[in-house]
Amino acid sequence: MRPSRRSPTQPGPPTRPKLGLQELLHYYPPVISGVLLPGLLVVALVVIPYVRINLERPPLAPARRTRALVILWATLTTLVLVSYFTGSQPVWPFIGTLLVVGAGMSVGIAGRSPGRVVSWLRGRSIAFWIFSWFLLTATVLTVIGIFFRGPGWSFTLPWRDGIYY
After folding, report:
1. CA–CA distance, 20 with 137 (Å, rounded to integer)
2. CA–CA gap between residue 24 and residue 31 (Å, rounded)
3. Residue 59 CA to its chain's centroid (Å)
4. Are 57 and 127 in contact (CB under 8 A)?
5. Are 33 and 27 in contact (CB under 8 A)?
6. Taking CA atoms, which of 65, 73, 87, 152 is between 20 and 30 Å from 162?
7. For 59-118, how does the pLDDT look when each residue is reduced to its tens digit (9 = 90+)?
């Protein structure tokens, strides 16, 4: 086992279970990532029991595909701009995952081929896509926190500098 490259005075990355939250705190100001987002989560947990549960979720592909695509990309553009201008650091983990999920939604809405993948994407509901974005973003932030953070939260390449624990 090789010795750690971290100096004794340099604090290491935080403990592993909190890495997603630590990355969020690194990208956004504390008011947004420590107060606003957890507050919205608590409000969502309070409101969810009162929401009518629709067990038959309609697929996202509507009859008016062009209008749906315009609304989708206007919403995605707004979210990208808000993320870009409110983030204190480069926010490519949020923007990249948002664009990946948006591309999947676009294929599901605009896809006309009878292929299995397109028909599967066409049958997904909006709840599926929102959850997919949250899951993908949490995974990306955790992977960045584990493999690409070095001393002092500097960005490192694990194949060049090693993994700091």
Report:
1. 9
2. 11
3. 22
4. yes
5. yes
6. 87
7. 776 678 888 889 889 999 998 888 888 765 667 888 888 999 999 888 888 877 788 888
